[in-house]
């Protein structure tokens, strides 16, 4: 199996790239954001809880996120591997993911990170907010809070995966095709 953590700040293009890469490499794309939005739209108990945190620009608690992720992996037990998009977001989540995969005789092959300057990301998110229907993409102060959350809680994962020799930073600026080509070079080696 090939299990990749696709990483980067909000608006870096993870979802766009995962859509292309999942088909190219025959992997299952698990986007915690998409799963949260589905649950929010359908007003499930998990969705209502997740919405409360997301509306403030805060991260959803680990326990909720981890249990949701495990369920998604279990639904796709015959997969060739997974692209994890939006998970893990904390070192505790990364440790939990490693333990969960180890139970299955699997591991994370690499964290591939899209690196994009913050000001460009703010522009992208505000533009996306005009058409996405995502309230967290329409308010610059909420967007900046998401970056603060990312920088203080999530960016530490770079060190976690770097210590394992599994961190691969990719320039996330350019056309979709250019970025896909850069990502594919790394995916081919993992």
Automatic annotation (TrEMBL):
Keyword hit for Kinase: yes
Enzyme Commission number, as recorded: 2.7.4.3
Residues holding AMP: 32, 37, 58-60, 86-89, 93, 134, 146
NCBIfam families in UniProt: PRK00279.1-3 (NF001381), PRK14527.1 (NF011100), PRK14528.1 (NF011101), PRK14532.1 (NF011105)
Highest rank taxon of the organism: Bacteria
Main location: cytoplasm
Organism expressing this protein natively: Tenacibaculum todarodis
Protein name per Swiss-Prot or TrEMBL: Adenylate kinase
Record pathway: Purine metabolism; AMP biosynthesis via salvage pathway; AMP from ADP: step 1/1
GO cellular component, one term: cytoplasm
Protein purpose: Catalyzes the reversible transfer of the terminal phosphate group between ATP and AMP. Plays an important role in cellular energy homeostasis and in adenine nucleotide metabolism.
Catalytic activity: AMP + ATP = 2 ADP
